[in-house]
From TrEMBL:
Annotated function: Part of the Sec protein translocase complex. Interacts with the SecYEG preprotein conducting channel. SecDF uses the proton motive force (PMF) to complete protein translocation after the ATP-dependent function of SecA.
Pfam families from the UniProt entry: SecD_SecF_C (PF02355)
Record-linked InterPro entries: SecD/SecF_arch_bac (IPR022813), SecD/SecF_bac (IPR022645), SecD_SecF_C (IPR048634), SecF_bac (IPR005665)
Gene: secF
Family recorded in the similarity comment: Belongs to the SecD/SecF family. SecF subfamily.
Record's subcellular location: Cell membrane
Gene3D superfamilies cross-referenced by the UniProt entry: Multidrug efflux transporter AcrB transmembrane domain (1.20.1640.10)
Lineage: Bacteria, Bacillati, Bacillota, Clostridia, Eubacteriales
Protein name: Protein-export membrane protein SecF
Assembly behavior: Forms a complex with SecD. Part of the essential Sec protein translocation apparatus which comprises SecA, SecYEG and auxiliary proteins SecDF. Other proteins may also be involved.
Membrane-spanning parts: 14-33, 139-160, 172-194, 200-219, 251-273, 279-303
Length: 318
């Protein structure tokens, strides 16, 4: 296995700068466009119609608002293939925020109004669903609680397993790196204008485990090298050596996982499976940033913290 000689700690400002730059871009998008929550979290209803030909999003929004007397969000998906790939259709998804469900009469009235505007489109209801707002808020709170509990358990696990190399500080640095990954996934949803839904929570929980696994591999090598190189070895040398020894493994694992998820994304995009693409795209970003944070964020921050503690001890003795 090839051993690299990359100065991860010495180049930490470059790595931190890259992450902060991407986060700044995501924050700008967030300020401009805001955060969209799916009806799974806010409550509301969704109707999806299939149609042929061409329609305009602005026209559909006005027609539905005039008919249903509610604010709506319209998304148009063109050239959606059936599961067997034999038929290609266009879909329009109409989302209503609020407490009232969409009745059959409402659906028929909307379809009739759309048909009057586009008589050759052949609108047909493909899917209809509704979520109570209180249930949506409860589901969102439970999802956030799941992420918080998972994070706490991860800190405790790292603290106990790596107590010989400063377990609690190692756990905290690992969680900071995981928070970095969560923000990257969040900004992916914001930049690509995807509403936060259960796919966001699924991606976050998956990345928490995936990224931490990579970090634990590095910590395990740090612990082993501490024993081999001796306690007087500087933390910067110890961490640089450990990361370089596991760097190839990290790249291969991330590359293989990324390729697999990219294949899923392509299939979902070809067949117009929005539920698949909204999971696969952020997951691809999460795999890349998870590998990056484990190698370029957690390790250098761990060295900075250990150096800080060593300086404090030296000042206390002086």
């Amino acid at each position: 296995m090839r051993i690299f000689n990359i100065k991860f700690f010495e180049n930490r400002k470059i790595f931190f700068g890259i992450s902060l730059g991407i986060m700044a871009i995501g924050l700008i998008f967030n300020i401009i466009f805001g955060t969209q929550l799916d009806i799974q979290f806010t409550g509301g209803a969704v109707i999806k119609y299939s149609y042929s030909g061409s329609i305009k999003q602005e026209d559909v929004e006005k027609i539905v608002q005039d008919t249903a007397k509610k604010d709506v969000t319209v998304r148009i998906l063109e050239n959606v293939k059936s599961a067997d790939g034999a038929e290609v259709k266009n879909n329009v998804s109409i989302s209503f925020a609020g407490t009232d469900s969409i009745t059959i009469d409402n659906q028929q009235a909307i379809a009739k109004a759309l048909a009057a505007k586009y008589p050759d489109a052949g609108f047909q209801v493909v899917e209809s669903s509704s979520v109570n707002p209180s249930m949506g808020r409860s589901f969102f709170a439970k999802c956030i609680a799941a992420v918080a509990i998972a994070s706490l358990l991860l800190i405790l696990y790292v603290a106990l397993r790596f107590k010989k190399i400063g377990g609690m500080s190692a756990g905290i640095m690992a969680i900071i790196a995981l928070l970095h990954d969560v923000l990257m996934v969040y900004f992916t949803f914001i930049i690509f204008r995807m509403p936060l839904n259960d796919s966001f929570i699924a991606v976050v929980l998956t990345i928490l485990g995936y990224s931490l696994n990579d970090t634990i591999i590095i910590y395990d090598r740090i612990r082993e090298n501490r024993r081999l190189l001796g306690p007087k070895t500087p933390y910067s040398v110890l961490v640089n050596t450990s990361i370089n020894q596991t760097f190839t493994r990290s790249l291969y694992t991330a590359g293989c996982t990324f390729s697999s998820i990219a294949t899923v994304y392509v299939v979902g995009a070809v067949f117009g499976l929005t539920s698949v693409t909204t999971f696969a795209l952020p997951m691809m970003v999460g795999v890349v940033t998870g590998c990056y944070s484990s190698v370029c964020i957690a390790g250098p921050m761990y060295v900075m913290w250990q150096n800080h503690k060593a300086t404090k001890r030296a000042e206390a003795k002086a």
